[in-house]
Every structure is written in C-alpha cells, then in structure tokens.
Amino acid sequence: MSGASPRTSQSLSNRIGKRNVAAAASLNAAQQPGSEVAPVAASPSATTTLASTSRLRRGGVANVAVMTMAVGIVGTLAIPAYAIAPGSNEPQFSETAQTKLTKAQAQSVDVGDDVIAAAVGTDQLSVTTGESIRQAAEAAAAAEAARVAAERAMTSYAAGYSGPSVGDFLANPPYPNFDLASVYSVATQYIGVPYVYGGATPAGFDCSGFVMYVYAQFGVGMPHSSSGQGAMGTPISQADAVPGDLVIMSGHDGFYAGNGNILHAPYEGASVRVQPIWTSSYSIVRIGI
C-alpha cells in the first residue's frame, strides 16, 4: 500500500503537536525570572509557530496604538472652535438676566397713577407778507431820513450860534444868587426858540437841554436827561409848586409856570412856549433843597 493509513497520520500529527506544546512551555519557562528549567531545543516547526505568534502580537498592539491615535485626532478636530477660545467663559459672554427673562416669559410694565402725561403742543407759524416787508422798509427809510435831517439841523445849529455854552456858564455863572423866581424869569427869555433834538443853546433846545441851559446860569450843573434832572431834586406836592420848579413826566420835563401850566420846549416843529399841563401823570421836583 502506498501512503500511510489514517490512524498513522493522526498519530503523527498528535506527536508533532505535543512537541510544539512542550517546546512553547519550555520557552516560556525559560523567559520567567529565576526559572531553573533548562532550555529545550525546539524543533523547526515549533520555532516557526512561535515566530508567527510573536508577529501577530506585535501587529495587534501596533494596530491598537494606531486606532487610539486616530480616535484622538478625530475627537480633537470635532471640538468646535468656540469651545477652546480664550476667555469664552468670561461673564461678558454669558447671557444676561434681562435676556433670560425676555426669552422665558412675556414682559409687562405697571404705570403709576401719579405719572403726568406730556403736554402736546403745536408750533405757531407766522407769515411775513409782502405788505409788511414794504411797511418795514418804509419805516426804516423814514428813520434814516430823520437821522440825516437831525444831523443837518445840528450842523446848522452849531454854525448859527456863537454865544456862551452850558460849560461857559458853569465856569462863570451870571446869576450866582439862586432863587426859583429868578430861574423862571431867565427861562421866559427863551420863549420862541425852536425845538431842536439834542439842542442846548438859544440856537435850538430840546426839553432837557432848555432846563439845563437855564440852570447852568445859576451855577447848577445838570445832565442832559429829563429823568436825570428829576433825580437831582426833591419831590414836593403839586399844591406847593411855584414857578421855577420842575415838572417831570415820562421822557419829558419843563418849568412849572403856575396855575397848572408848563414852560417847555415841546417837540420838533414847535418852539419854547407856555401851555397847560395835559396829563395827570407828572410830579413836581424842586432843585436846591
């Protein structure tokens, strides 16, 4: 018969397997520290089997290491950028209490009864008409014309008088003895002198310029102002007034002329004259007391 019988083949295989097991046991025992087991020579087939087992072990360990590293890299890449941003856990990046309440529920505001509603008004518009513009232009032109006329009058006034001035009289008063009757007597000498705005000489007087010029002749210096002249004197009752006292009105003055009359320089176009006092809104002021 050619070839071995099945029993013979199985017996051979069992012997080979036992040898390999014995060789592996001897090798393991030899690798243990302090082992006294003598090394046993392994057959070629046992050596091959152990080498294959060792390679499988090293390959498995390497595969586990590679897989662990891969999982770590994937996990790192999967972390969102904001999760590792520096300062992302600071309080300023957190949600405020107001925002949480807004998201959580509807909001309401209670208004107290003492709240006053704001007043609502409307703008009042004024319209400037062409007629009003024309009237304003005419008034401005008239005022300018009056100013020019007054300048010309004063120029003519200054050129038409060469007598003593208020300053001359104050430096050397012709009437050093002061009394109201004399004052009024001197004042009557200028009846008929024309009214000139700003005038303070016999070439032309305005109301306060007339009073100032007369009193300067008695050595009494006065301002060129009706209110200033009234402030210089002492108020007295109308019943005690005598000629020579001052009649003071709003923006005007003159000499009391007796019997409810006034001697004054009235207005442009008129002359110094005596006339009844036309208003009850006046006061009497006496100079020198």
Describe this structure in words.
This protein starts with 5 loop residues before the first helix and ends with a strand. The protein is 45% helix and 10% strand. Helix 1 packs across helix 2 (44-78). It has a 6-stranded antiparallel sheet. Strands 1-2 form a two-stranded antiparallel sheet. With 289 residues, it is α+β, with helices and mostly antiparallel strands.
Keywords:
10% strand, two-stranded antiparallel sheet, elongated, endopeptidase fold (from Nostoc punctiforme), alpha+beta, 289 residues, single chain, 45% helix, six-stranded antiparallel beta sheet
List the helices and strands and how they pair.
Layout: H1 6-31, H2 44-78, H3 97-104, H4 130-159, H5 166-171, H6 180-188, E1 200-201, E2 204-205, H7 207-216, H8 226-232, E3 234-236, E4 246-249, E5 252-258, E6 261-264, E7 273-276, E8 283-286
Antiparallel strand pairs: 1-2, 3-8, 4-5, 4-8, 5-6, 6-7
Helix pairs in contact: 1-2
How would the global form be characterised?
elongated
CATH structural architecture of the domain at 166-286:
Alpha-Beta Complex
Q: State the order of secondary-structure elements, H for helix, E for strand.
A: HHHHHHEEHHEEEEEE
Query: What's the CATH first level of the domain at 166-286?
Result: Alpha Beta
CATH topology name of the domain at 166-286, in short, is endopeptidase fold (from Nostoc punctiforme)
Mean pLDDT over the full residue set = 76
Q: How many distinct helices?
A: 8
Could you list the spans in which at least 5 consecutive residues all have pLDDT below 50? 34-43
- Biggest sheet: strand arrangement: 3-8-4-5-6-7
Class inferred from helices and paired strands: alpha+beta
Q: What's the count of strands?
A: 8
Instruction: Give the N-to-C terminal Cα separation.
Output: 182 Å
For CATH, the homologous superfamily of the domain at 166-286 is named as endopeptidase domain like (from Nostoc punctiforme)
- Strand content is 5-15%
Helix percent reads 40-55%
**Major sheet attributes:** 6 strands, antiparallel
